[in-house]
Amino acid sequence: MTQLEDDQARVEERIATACRQAGRAREEVRLLAVSKTRSDAEIQALHRLGQRLFGENYVQEFIAKHDALTGLEPPLEWHFIGALQTNKTRAVAERAAWVHGIDRLKIAERLSRQRPAGMAPLQVCLQIDLSGEPGKAGVPPREAGGLAAAVAPLPNLVLRGLMAIPAPAEDPTAQRRPFARLRELRDALNTRGLELDTLSMGMSDDLEAAILEGSTLVRVGTALFGPRRPKARQ
Ligand SMILES: *Cc1c(COP(=O)(O)O)cnc(C)c1O
Predict the structure, then answer these.
(1) How far apart are CA 222 and CA 226, in angstroms?
(2) What separation in Å is there between the alpha carbon of 161 and the centre of ligand 1?
(3) SS3 assignment, position 77
(4) At 231, is the pLDDT very low, low, confident or very high (cuts 50, 70, 90)?
């Protein structure tokens, strides 16, 4: 077994165990492999092991990898999970299947307008800032309803759900609290006529807590690929 096979099996076992504990079917939780800083060869190796969903958070790096790996079969499903500036939306609209970090209407409008006609609608999540601290990415929970109501009707997007990156916490009870809040917010929005089926939450250190609170997509980097090398690719 290679290190990568070993890590993949370990992550899969963690997800399966958490699903069993939560009384949920394994199929309810998708695994997004966060491949930022990893080489094309590492991504290809994980793809050969059956992984299909990959996530990147820097636009230039995303473009390079997406374009280099186009043509692999079965195709990769690319998720853009980083912050997006308005001048970078087109490259993402032309390449990504999903964008997780929507926190401004302007970005969503541009993505919808720039989505090529021949492509399936872009699947998007609103990023919610649960910290309450200024300067953090995401919309505050109280503004989520207004943003969701504005994004949902955009023609070339499908608003799928909510995403959050809570501050790291050591103990499982503390880890679960923000994930529970995100789930409650999603449920509250759905009672107001939205149909959000996605909770993008949980990373290498807290995926179990996220799955116990209803995560439908965990974003995992380090636990799959090992520690990130700083500035491996700029
Ligand atoms: C890097 C990153 C992850 C993965 O983090 P790990 O701790 O390596 O699993 C998940 N989500 C986002 C938005 C990230 O930028």
Answers:
(1) 5
(2) 18
(3) strand
(4) low
Phi, psi of 175 (to 5 degrees): -65, -35
State if residue 203 touches ligand 1 by the CB under 6 angstroms criterion: yes
| 191 CA → ligand 1 middle, Å | 30
The three-point CA angle 209-215-220 to 5° equals 75
DSSP readout, 201-220? ---TTTHHHHHHTT-SEEEE
Please give the pLDDT value at position 234.
Answer: 45
Q: Specify whether domain 3-225 bears CATH 1.20.1740.10.
A: no
Span from the CA of 34 to the centroid of ligand 1 (angstroms): 6
Q: Is the whole model's pTM more than 0.90, yes or no? A: yes
Cα of 24 vs centre of ligand 1, distance in Å, is: 23
pLDDT of residue 32 exceeding 90: yes
Residue 65 beta carbon below 6 angstroms from any ligand 1 atom: no
Return the pLDDT at 138.
96
**Does ligand 1 lie within 6 Å of residue 39's CB atom?**
no
| Structure token digits, residue 159 | 């608003």
**Structure tokens belonging to residue 37:** 């800083």
Which ligand 1 atom minimizes the distance to the CA of 225? Answer: 8
How do residues 82-111 score in pLDDT, each as one tens digit?
999 999 999 999 999 999 999 999 999 999
E strands present in 35-95: 53-56, 77-80
Cβ count near 64 (within 10 Å): 14
Q: Tell me how far apart the alpha carbons of residues 166 and 129 are, in angstroms, rounded to a whole number.
A: 8
